Structures are given as structure tokens and as C-alpha cells.
User: What shape does this take?
Amino acid sequence: MKALLVFLISFNLWSDDLKKFQKIFQSANKIEKIEIPDPISEKPTNTELILIKENKKNLGYAREIKTDTGCNSGCLPVIFTLYYDSKKNFIDLTSKPGLTKKNHARFTSQDYLTLKGILFRNPENFSKITHPYEMVDMVSGATKKEYVPDVVEKAAYTSLRVNTYNQQTLKFLSSFKP
Assistant: This one.
């Protein structure tokens, strides 16, 4: 009886996961979890990549991320899901709890579009950053001028963190063979 209960709970969890991924991949009927390294977070917890399938056909991938901005201040958690097509190209980003920016203001629809544009373009400026604090003026908290075109307004830390995970996932996918 206990084994049946565990199976039913597991099945319901998988079923809920599948429903979430079907918003992006409508014909999905199967998911597989794959281990992926997380060299970004202080405590690596984002170590699953989801392979999304329709029967035996690979539809794409998803990676759910629960992290912080890397600034070690009062920033809210950064929780989002990255999606990739079967050719391993970034296609979308969602965040059920919603992403936030300075003073915990919620991202607008335009902010999400801007962030997706950042992920598609992978700003070269980001490769020069060794710590998120380098992106802002430490007195005013304003984004430094050289980074303004590369971030969501008032969300420099979040923009960098999401892009860093996207680039790390793309790098993993480039050598991954399903």
C-alpha cells in the first residue's frame, strides 16, 4: 500500500511537471531528467535539465532555476525556467512567481521581452564581469552607463544572473547527446 502511495504521488508530480512544459511544447507526453552541473550558485542546486518528448521524438529541453542574484544583499530569489528547442536553441523564459528588479518591483511584460532579447543576444559586456557589483554605481545603485543597453532597466543583477545560466545551459547542450 505504501509503495502504491509513493508511486501515485510521484506520478502526480510528474503529471504536474508535464502540464507545465506542455504550455511550451503542446504535444509533450514524456519527460526525462538529466543531470547538469551548476557551477554558478554558491550551493549547486540547479542540477536538472528536463528532456521533453512526444513518445520517442525529442521536442526540446527545459531548465528550472532557483537562485539568487549573486549580490548577497536583500534581493529576492530569482526563479525562472529556460526553454530550448530540439536543436538546442534558446526559445523562451517563464517565471511563475515573477522576476523582480530594484526595490522588489515586479517585471512588466516589456521587461520580459527585453530580458528574452538579452538572452538571444548574449551581451559581450557580460563576459567582462567578475561580480555583479561591477555593474552598478555603489553609491547611487544605478546601473553603470556601459551596461544600460545590456540589461532590463533597474534589473542589472537579475539580467546578468539569468543570462549566465542561459549561457551555461547552452554550453552544456552543445556537447550533450540525448
Observations:
- The mean pLDDT is 87.
- The first strand starts at residue 30 and ends at 35.
- The beta strands are 30-35, 48-54, 57-67, 78-85, 90-94.
